Amino acid sequence: MRIRLDDEELILSDEIVEEGKEGIYEEVKRIASNRGRVITGTVLDGEPIDDIDVFLSISSGQDIQFVSQAVRALVIDSLAEGTKYLPTLLGGLGNIAAKFEAGDDGEAQNMLASAIEGINWLFSVFERSCGLLGITGASLVSGDFGQDSEEIKRVLDDMGTAMENKKNLKLAFIIRDRLIPAMERFSAYWDEVARTLEAPLQ
User: In what order do the strands lie in the sheet with 63-70?
Assistant: First the structure.
């Protein structure tokens, strides 16, 4: 079996190879981490597979290449994408509230579903980026991140209840009065983490 990390061929112990793809993945992930890199995908017998779970589920394969990216570069790219998206999200939330208030419930609900998906994506990227950078919520100085993140979860729960009960005017109020301000505070934490990457490497 041929195993590579990017373009470098690796020689792993027989014990690790015998553990199968999961053992191989964990060992290569450790090697990459020691080099300040993160596994972002795989190529199995010449076929790219970005989803690690899919890769691990395949029993065949003799040529495995793990694709990695420097942690700093990965986080910079991820945060830059979110920085562009946040203003669009905040503007979109205002439009969603306006549509509910105008009785355009069908389009508003479709837009809201996309917005909630976007919020979940932002939190996923934020948590992963903080984890890779070794930043904790308690270390952020833009506010009380723990309290604000819990508030967003409560707001989304309350919105879900309003949607179930078809109280669309209440839903519009929650979006304007609670969700938008909460996401504006979240944007400040996002900017704070992004600024930590502006300093040059020592």
Answer: 8-9, 2-5, 63-70, 37-44, 47-49
